[in-house]
Write a structure and sequence with these properties.
49% of the residues lie in helices and 16% in strands. By secondary structure, it is of the alpha+beta class.
Length: 302
């Protein structure tokens, strides 16, 4: 007999397959146990992350990082030539708008005026323009007469006499008469100041007054007003109320100049004084000023 060794048994077809026992790790754990342990360890951080409460302040670290990025983007500033040009243009535009707004606000007094007051102011401006045009035309006519006259010496002498008469009226050395107005200011409370009377003189001159007399004092180019209410002096001479202004000029221009909004009449009424304006076709200004001979100036013809 021959000795036969152990033969490996092969499973036959259709025979049930025997299950092998699970392999053991050196530590004595089977493969399935290691897989289950690995899955549990992988799921533990997710569960811990989901169940753990958020740290105080939420995502403070992320917000701080965003601020740092924003600060790093803004500082130091990176200015390009285009940005500088736009900034200059915006500055110029803002300056222009500010000037426009300021100039518009300066006309707020006229904005609140009544329609008849605005019409009166426009009429006064038209009258001033017309006076300047008439003066220009008169001077041009005089020049034409001098150039075309056969006897230029006689024409020049006649115009010189006329000019002397006009200068005498302006200087107050000769009397004058003509159409104009009479302005009477009553000051029972003594509140009228010298600057208010000076404002009246300035308004009348701007309206085309050719000769002015206050009480018995002739008003000329160097006339000055001093003193306070109830104690007013004109060229060093004391005057008392009522203050009577005799003015020669075009009445249609003189009266509206005193009655404009915020003008002389309204200012006096605010001070509890009354101002009355009366037109007349004949105003006599007979207060005279002594003719002064200059100390140093002489005619160039001498």
């Amino acid at each position: 007999m021959t000795e036969e060794g152990p033969r490996s048994e092969r499973p036959q077809a259709g025979a049930p397959r025997a299950e092998l026992p699970p392999e053991k790790s050196p530590q004595g754990e089977s493969r399935d146990e290691r897989t289950a342990a690995a899955s549990a360890s992988a799921e533990e951080p997710v569960a811990a992350t989901a169940s753990a409460p958020p740290p105080p302040g939420g995502d403070g670290a992320g917000e701080e990082t965003g601020r740092q990025r924003l600060l790093a983007g803004l500082w130091p500033p990176r200015i390009t030539r285009a940005q500088l040009t736009v900034a200059v243009l915006l500055f110029v535009l803002g300056l222009g708008l500010a000037i426009q707004v300021r100039s518009t606000s300066d006309n707020s007094a006229l904005r609140g005026a009544r329609q008849e007051d605005l019409v009166r102011i426009l009429d006064e401006l038209d009258n001033r323009t017309q006076r300047l045009e008439d003066e220009k035309q008169r001077l041009e006519d005089q020049r034409a007469e001098l150039e075309n006259s056969s006897d230029q010496a006689e024409e020049a002498r006649k115009q010189t006499q006329q000019k002397e008469q006009q200068l005498g009226i302006l200087a107050g050395t000769v009397a004058a008469e003509g159409p104009g107005i009479t302005l009477t200011i009553q000051d029972k409370s003594g509140t009228v100041e010298s600057d208010m009377l000076l404002d009246a003189i300035q308004e009348l001159r701007a309206a085309g007054a050719e000769a002015i007399q206050v009480n018995d004092i002739r008003v000329v180019a160097d006339t000055h007003f001093t003193g306070t209410g109830g104690d007013i002096e004109v060229d060093g001479k004391r005057i008392t109320a009522p203050y009577v202004f005799k003015v020669i000029g075009k009445p249609q221009d003189l009266e509206p100049a005193l009655n404009i909004p915020g003008g002389v009449v309204q200012t006096l009424e605010k001070e509890q004084a009354t101002a009355t304006v009366v037109r007349s076709q004949k105003i006599v200004v007979d207060a005279l000023r002594p003719a002064k001979r200059p100390d140093y100036a002489r005619s160039s013809d001498q």
